[in-house]
Amino acid sequence: MNEAMIPLNVAVLTVSDTRTEKTDRSGRTLVERLEAAGHRLHEKRIVVDDVYRIRAQVAAWIAEPEVQVILTTGGTGFTGRDSTPEAVDVLLDKRIEGFGELFRHLSWQEIGSSTVQSRCLGGLANATVIFCLPGSTGACRTAWDGILAEQLDSRHQPCNFANLVIPERGQHV
To answer: Family per UniProt (predicted)?
Structure first.
């Protein structure tokens, strides 16, 4: 890794019916980690767990050319109001099947079989990479430290998602 990392513009969306900026530890964890890695926070928002509000916010960011990465936290479980996967999946041009698989593999080591209830997902839409994470702070740490830190680093080899969303690299979807 001799070349400099290319910072990405990242939007963070917390999906919750109860969290506020003051109590949103998961969103704050993602912001802290992305900034520590050298990326830039484009915007951070909290929306209630409503499929149309989630979809509207994610779609708005997908349409903004300066947003290269969207991270959502929350709404990926099986309770009645959990609707992040349903909100985001229809917006994707391509799914990143291995993201959910790898996340659950890593999570298994921490929470055992409870990881089967995680419906996290990843995908690409309009040259924007999107990752929907569970709402727990631990899950956000697991996803960032175990997957996203490397995959959003333009220097990571043999491949990474950063190079798909950096226009001058010419590989974006």
So the answer is: Belongs to the MoaB/Mog family.
